[in-house]
Specification:
The complex is a heterodimer of chains A (255) and B (324).
Chain A lengths: L1 H16 L1 H34 L8 H25 L4 H6 L1 H6 L5 H22 L1 H10 L4 H27 L4 H22 L5 H9 L6 H5 L4 H28 L1
Helix pairs in contact in A: 1-6, 2-3, 2-6, 3-8, 3-9, 6-8, 6-12, 8-9, 8-12, 9-10
Chain B lengths: L1 E10 L2 E11 L4 E5 L6 H8 L7 E6 L2 E2 L4 H6 L1 E4 L11 H11 L7 H11 L15 H13 L5 E5 L7 H14 L4 E6 L2 H7 L2 E6 L2 E6 L1 H9 L3 E7 L5 H6 L4 E10 L2 E8 L6 H10 L3 E8 L3 H25 L1
Parallel strand pairs in B: 3-8, 3-9, 6-7, 7-8
Antiparallel strand pairs in B: 1-2, 1-4, 4-5, 9-10, 11-13, 11-14, 12-13
Helix pairs in contact in B: 3-4, 4-5
The chains are: A mainly alpha (255), B alpha/beta (324).
Chain lengths: 255, 324
C-alpha cells in the first residue's frame, strides 16, 4: 500500500511538473465556463419568460441547468481523459524508467494501482475546480445539493473507468500520440455502442445499452444512486486495471 | 552470492542466452564480457527480475529470483544501460522516490540519500533537474539509485558507456571502492576495463559462456611460447640470420622497418628465456640495441580468439540447420 502511494504521488507530481496538467485543466475549465455561461443565460431567459406568464411553478436549477452541463462535460472528458493516461506507461517505456519500476521490490499490481490513483487524483483536482461554479449557484440561488453530489460521484466513476482503460492502452505502445488516439477511439466506441441497439429490439437493445458507458450516468444525474450502475463502473475499472497488469506482465515475457 | 544455473532465454526461435552457468562469490567483482548482442543485457535483466528466463535457475543473495522475486529485488541494485531517470524530477526528489519504492525505512531515508550522494559525488547537483544533467552525472545518479537501499548485490550494465576518459577512470575507481561491501557484476565490451576492475571474467559469445577465469590467467593461457620484440640498428647487415642461429630461437620475423632500425619478432622455444643471448648477439656484432621487450598476449587477443573460435565452431552447425 505504501508503495502504491509512492507511485501515485510520483505520478501526480510529474503531471504538475510537465505542462500537461495545466493545459488539460486550463482548457477544461475554460470550456466548462463557456457551457456554464450559456446554460445560465438560457436558464435566466426561461425563468423570465415563465415569470411573465405568471406561472407559479419555479424552474428547477438542477434539472434545467446542471444536467445539460454535465452532459456536455462528459463529451469534454472524451477528449481530455486520454491526455491524462497517454504517457503513463508509454513514457516509462520510452525513457527506460520501466526497468527501475520492474526491478524494484514492488508488485505489478502496486504499480498499476498507483498509476491509476495518480491519474484519478489529477482528474479529481480538475473536477474540483468546477466546484467554484457550483458555489456561485449556491450563493445566488437555491439548488439541491444531493443531486449535485451524485452527479459528481457519477463523473468520478465514469472518469475512473475511462482512465483505467486508457492506462491499458498506454501499455501497448511507446508512442504517446498512438496512446491518445487509441484511447479516444475506444472511449468513443464504448460511448456509441448503444446506437447499434437502436436498430433492433429486445435482447440486443438491452445488451448494447447496458454496455454503453454513458447510459449508466443518467441515474446519477437525476440524483439517484443505483448499485447496478456503481457496480458497472467499478467492474469496468477493475477490468481495465486487470488488463493493464496482464499487459505489463506479458511485456516481461516479450522483453 | 549469485548462482546461475543452466539459464536459457529464447525469444521465439531466437536464443539470446543459452545454458549459462556461473557463480559470483561475496565481495567479488565479476566482469561480464562479450561483443554486442552476446546476451549480457538479457542475463542481467533476468538476474534483476525484470524478465523471466525460459529455463534454468538464478539465485541472488540467497533468494531464487523466480520464486521469491521481491526478496531478491530487495537485495539487488541495478543500473541499466541507460540510467532510468525521470527528466522532470530533481536529483533529490528522484532519490527520495527510489528510496520509497526500494523499501528504505522512512527514518533512514534522509541519511541514506546523503550517504549515496556523497559516495557518488553528486551532492552539488541535488537540486538540479535530471534532464539538465550531463551524461557523466546521469550515470552517477543512476549508480546512486542502485546503491540507495544498500543492496548486497550490484548489477551494472555497461557503467562506463558513453563517458569521457576522466569520467571512466572515476567511475572505475568508484566501482572498485564499492567492492567488498557489495558483490558486483558489471558488463562491458571494453577490455581494459575488465583487467583493471574485475577479479574474475566471464566471457560470453552468442549467449554461451566461452571462458571463466581471472584476467591474468586468461592472458597467460593464450601465451604458450614467449615472443620477444627486438629492435636493432644493424647498419644494413641482416640481423635475422644471426638471430635465428641462436639456440632456443625457433622463428624470427621482421615486424617493421624505420630507416636502419629494424624490428623483429623473435619466437623462443617453450619455457626458454632468450633475452640474454639476444642482447649478447646484438652487442658482440657491434649493432645498436634499440629495444627489447616481451610481447604478451593482451586480453584483447584472448577475447578475440575465444569469441571467434566460438563463431567458427558454431558456423557449420548453423549451416546444417539451414539445410534441414
Amino acid at each position: 500500500m505504501r508503495n502504491t502511494f509512492a507511485i501515485a504521488g510520483k505520478e501526480l507530481r510529474s503531471y504538475f511538473a510537465s505542462p500537461i496538467a495545466y493545459i488539460v485543466i486550463g482548457l477544461f475549465v475554460l470550456l466548462y465556463g463557456v457551457f456554464y455561461w450559456l446554460y445560465l443565460q438560457s436558464f435566466l431567459r426561461e425563468a423570465l419568460n415563465l415569470g411573465q406568464y405568471g406561472t407559479q411553478q419555479a424552474l428547477n436549477i438542477n434539472q434545467h441547468m446542471l444536467r445539460p452541463i454535465v452532459q456536455n462535460v462528459t463529451v469534454l472528458l472524451l477528449f481530455v481523459l486520454p491526455a491524462m493516461t497517454m504517457r503513463a506507461y508509454a513514457e516509462e517505456r520510452r525513457s527506460g524508467t520501466i526497468e527501475l519500476l520492474l526491478t524494484s521490490p514492488i508488485t505489478d499490481l502496486e504499480i498499476v494501482v498507483g498509476k491509476f490513483l495518480g491519474a484519478l487524483g489529477l482528474y479529481v483536482v480538475m473536477l474540483s475546480v468546477t466546484l467554484i461554479h457550483i458555489a456561485i449557484l449556491f450563493w445566488y440561488g437555491d439548488p439541491e445539493w444531493k443531486p449535485i453530489a451524485t452527479m459528481y460521484l457519477g463523473l468520478v466513476l465514469l472518469g475512473g473507468s475511462f482512465l483505467s482503460i486508457g492506462l491499458f492502452i498506454s501499455t501497448l505502445t511507446t508512442n504517446q500520440i498512438v496512446a491518445y488516439i487509441g484511447s479516444f477511439s475506444l472511449f468513443l466506441l464504448m460511448w456509441i455502442v448503444s446506437w447499434f441497439g437502436s436498430f433492433t429490439t429486445g435482447f440486443w437493445t438491452d445488451l448494447t445499452s447496458y454496455l454503453s458507458i454513458i447510459e449508466h450516468l443518467d441515474d446519477f444525474n437525476k440524483g439517484v444512486i443505483d448499485t447496478t450502475h456503481v457496480i458497472y463502473y467499478l467492474s469496468l475499472i477493475t477490468f481495465g486495471l486487470f488488463l493493464t497488469a496482464k499487459s505489463v506482465d506479458t511485456e516481461r515475457w516479450r522483453g | 552470492m549469485i548462482e546461475v544455473q543452466h539459464l536459457t532465454k529464447r525469444y521465439g526461435p531466437f536464443t539470446a542466452v543459452n545454458d549459462l552457468s556461473f557463480r559470483v562469490e561475496r565481495g567479488e567483482i565479476l566482469g561480464f564480457l562479450g561483443p554486442n548482442g552476446a546476451g549480457k543485457t538479457t542475463t542481467m535483466r533476468i538476474l534483476t527480475g525484470y524478465m523471466p528466463a525460459t529455463e534454468g535457475q538464478a539465485v541472488v543473495a540467497g533468494y531464487n529470483v523466480f520464486e521469491q522475486p521481491l526478496e531478491a529485488k530487495r537485495r539487488t541494485g541495478y543500473l541499466p544501460e541507460t540510467p532510468p531517470l525521470y527528466p522532470d524530477m530533481t536529483v533529490r526528489d528522484y532519490l527520495t522516490f527510489v528510496s520509497k519504492i526500494k523499501g528504505v525505512p522512512s527514518a533512514d531515508r534522509t541519511q541514506r540519500i546523503k550517504t549515496v550522494m556523497e559516495k557518488t559525488r553528486i551532492d552539488d547537483m541535488a537540486a538540479r533537474l535530471c534532464s539538465r544533467l550531463s551524461k557523466g552525472y546521469k550515470q552517477r545518479v543512476g549508480l546512486a539509485q542502485a546503491l540507495i537501499h544498500n543492496p548486497d548485490v550490484l548489477i551494472l550494465d555497461e557503467p562506463t558507456a558513453g563517458l569521457d576518459p576522466k569520467q571512466i577512470i572515476e567511475t572505475r575507481k568508484l566501482i572498485t571502492e564499492l567492492a567488498g561491501d557489495h558483490t558486483i557484476v558489471l558488463s562491458t565490451h571494453i577490455l581494459p576495463e575488465v583487467s583493471q576492475t574485475c577479479q574474475r571474467v566471464v566471457i560470453i559469445a552468442k549467449g554461451r559462456v566461452v571462458a571463466v577465469d581471472t584476467p591474468d590467467n586468461l592472458t597467460a593461457h593464450l601465451r604458450g611460447n614467449e615472443t620477444m620484440y627486438l629492435q636493432v640498428d644493424a647498419d644494413g647487415a641482416d640481423a635475422a640470420v644471426a638471430l635465428s642461429r641462436l639456440s632456443g630461437v625457433s622463428r624470427v620475423e621482421e615486424a617493421d622497418r624505420r630507416g636502419n632500425a629494424i624490428g623483429y619478432e623473435v619466437v623462443s622455444e617453450q619455457g626458454r628465456d632468450i633475452r640474454r643471448e639476444l642482447s649478447n648477439t646484438v652487442v658482440s656484432n657491434g649493432w645498436g640495441l634499440l629495444e627489447l621487450r616481451p610481447m604478451r598476449a593482451s586480453l584483447e587477443e584472448v577475447f578475440l580468439s575465444l569469441t571467434t573460435e566460438e563463431a567458427a565452431a558454431s558456423a557449420p552447425a548453423g549451416e546444417e540447420t539451414e539445410h534441414a
